[in-house]
Amino acid sequence: MPYKKMLGFEIRLINNLIKGVVSRTHPDTGVRPQTQLQAGILGYLYHKKEQPVYQKNIEEEFNISGATATNTLRVMERNGLLTRCAMDKDARLKRIMLTEPAKKGHRLAEAHMEMMEEKMMQGLERAEREELLRLLAVVRENLERMNRETEEGGN
User: Fold this and answer.
1) Alpha-carbon distance 151 to 63, whole Å?
2) Rounded to whole angstroms, how far apart are CA atoms 12 and 140?
3) 124 phi and psi angles, rounded to 5 deg
4) What is the pTM of this model?
C-alpha cells in the first residue's frame, strides 16, 4: 500500500515545529505566562484594556470554571502579570488589569507572533493564504462538531 499523508499527522508535526521555533526565538519579556490559558488571558486583557474585565468575563470567554479562573488569576497576580482592584460600588467585584511589565511583554510577544506568521506564510500569494486559512477553518469546524457529538452521544 502506498504511503498516504494524513492530515492529523501533518497538523501535529506543524504544531510541534511551531512550538520548537517559538521556544527558541521568543523574546525575553521578563514576566511571561506559564501556560496557554495564562497566555490567552493576557491577550484577552490586553485587547480589552479599555473595558472593565472581571473574573466572570474570563470564565465565560475561556469556558472555565470559577475555581480554575480563581486559581489561574491568583498565580498570574503572584507572578506580576495582573492586578485585581476592588470596585467602589461592590468590594467583592474586582476589576482585572495587566501590569505594565505584562503589557510591555505582550506587545513584544505579539510582534514576535506577527513575525512568525509572516515567515510561515512566506512563498504563498495572498489568495493562497486566504484559501489555506479558509480550509483550516473548515477542518476546525468539523473537529468541533465531532467533539460536540462525541460528548453528547458517546460515539
Assistant:
1) 15
2) 13
3) -100, 135
4) 0.67
